[in-house]
Amino acid sequence: MNGFLLKVLLINLNIFCFSPKGNTVSNLIMIIPPIFGAIQSVRDGLEKRYVAAYLALTVVGMGSWCFHMTLKYEMQVYLKVKEPVFHQVMYGMLVFTLVLRSVYIVTWVYPWLRGLGYTSLGIFLLGFLLWNIDNIFCDSLRNFRKKMPPILGVTTQFHAWWHILTGLGSYLHILFSLYTRTLYLRYRPKVKFFFGIWPVIMFEPLRKH
Asked: Which domain of life is it from (predicted)?
């Protein structure tokens, strides 16, 4: 029985390493947690901007899921529609401004939030780094994985790790933004860990002015 379970595990690891399924399943981190975040935001009566932020992350994850699951051109267009250079430049400026604003907040306004702020940024940038490594050394990594045990091959599936890390980094930055905003609105937010693993924000009643 144990031998059978080991074979099943190895087969599934092999699927994850050498097929698009790993790149599909890795999008779950951008789909499920933000949905719960949006539900919690509605339940707690928070500003609609945060419901929109959570759902926007979910839409990105679902689009990536559909493409990697089907590998159809129609789904690829959803993700890779050609953007004018002007849009790309403005997006880059928006992200740069967002990072600068976040650094300002954790340096001068809420310094005790440096851990959450820098963690979200660091995880996102690590995912971006792995994505670039995968793009540059894709063929070499694929050949390398063929020579490795499946359980080790998972660690070099950098495209899937890119999904996981950028999804987690984006989710954490929404939490960071939500934390700072609710502090300003005189809530008493606290970061809790669901099942001791996944971070969420819980709120105590509003402070009286």
From this structure: Eukaryota
